[in-house]
Design brief:
With 163 residues, the protein is an alpha/beta fold. It is 26% helix and 30% strand. The protein has a single domain, classed as L-asparaginase, N-terminal domain (Rossmann fold). It is globular and about 45 Å long. The mean pLDDT is 91. One of its GO terms (molecular function) is asparaginase activity. This is Asparaginase domain-containing protein.
């Protein structure tokens, strides 16, 4: 794999809480620090373009993510994203040809003990290296087709859409 391009948009993975999960801000992207600490055997480049909760992303934000990825030479792209609107962004990214794009995030901040962030990032890194060009979501230990998955907010997990 050539260098992995990582585009960060914010979301829970980068949140910093100031009290009991109500007052927060989106902090610096955590993925570069995490991959560095893990001593990964590939080169990566991080482009932080947004620091938003995904509920606050709009069409212009999604177009910025799409245009940023389309303008880069990298064929393997990992996107950290908030989970609430990850599927919507993935559908926009489906218009980018010739790249393998994997979106991932976390249901609790990377700074929290027991966060799913490292596991989801590891799953996404494996997926982006092995899947054919297209757009995928890596969450809850699975690789999802964005057209066939939804976030179940009540259960706080991703699940397949009913056929």
């Amino acid at each position: 794999m050539e260098d992995l391009l990582i585009v960060t948009t914010g979301g829970t993975i980068d949140k910093i809480y100031f009290d009991d999960k109500s007052d927060y801000q989106i902090g610096d992207p955590q993925i570069g620090r995490m991959l560095g600490e893990l001593g990964v055997a590939f080169r990566f480049r991080v482009i932080p373009i947004l620091r938003k909760d995904s509920l606050h992303l709009d069409d212009a934000d999604r177009e910025l993510v799409r245009a940023t990825i389309a303008a880069q030479e990298a064929r393997h792209v990992l996107v950290t994203h908030g989970t609430d609107s990850m599927v919507e962004t993935a559908k926009v990214l489906a218009t980018v040809p010739g790249k393998t794009i994997v979106l991932t995030g976390a249901l609790s901040p990377a700074r929290f003990r027991g966060s799913d962030a490292e596991f989801n990032i590891g799953t996404a890194v494996g997926a982006v290296q092995s899947l054919p060009p297209g757009v995928y979501i890596a969450m809850n230990g699975r690789i999802w087709d964005p057209a066939r998955v939804r976030k179940n907010v009540e259960a706080n997990r991703f699940e397949a859409l009913d056929d």
